[in-house]
Every structure is written in C-alpha cells, then in structure tokens.
Amino acid sequence: MFEIFKDKSGAFRFRLKAKNGEVILASEGYTQKTNCQKGVSSVKRNAKNEDRFELKQSSNSKWFFNLKAGNGQVVGTSEMFENETNVKNGVKSVMSTAAVAETVDLSK
After folding, report:
1. Looking at residue 108, what is its pLDDT?
2. Under CATH, what is the fold of the domain 2-105?
C-alpha cells in the first residue's frame, strides 16, 4: 500500500508498505500533493523494470537502493539492509508490490 502523508515540515511524502506493514520504499518531500501523487505513479511504472533500481553501499557498509525514473531522477529510496542479498530481496519486494498497491491519502 502507498501512503501519502505530510511530514513535520509540511512536505508531502509517500511510502510503500509491504503486506506485513514494513516500509519498503520512501520518497523525498514534495511541496504539492499532485507532485507526490505523480511520484507514486512513477514508482508504479518504473518498479516493473529491474534496471531502474540502483544498489548502493553506504559508508557504514550497509546497503540500500534507489528507484530511478526514466530520466534518471530518484523517485524512491529503500531502508538500510545488512547485506547485498537482503537489499536484492528488497528490490524484489518493491517490484512485486508497487504495481498492485492501492494508495491511501493520510494527508487530509
């Protein structure tokens, strides 16, 4: 499920949750809700393509990934993972969840 919400600074954000309720992808902050909704649509489109996922290792040796749109812009970032195997499983989870996920607007 995608959740659209307002953060403490008033920016609109979305997060994608797996069936178990765990957040598997989160967005940047958007000033307008319509742009946040476009971000959700972009995730749904781009998550189908494994080539759009960029795996990265942080300075503390943990792993994460970015999902990028066709223009190369990051549309979502994962949580941190302990190892490469787990981050790859995270990618698979986003790929299988995003296309069929409903969107709930919590920002009202």
Report:
1. 77
2. PH-domain like (2.30.29)
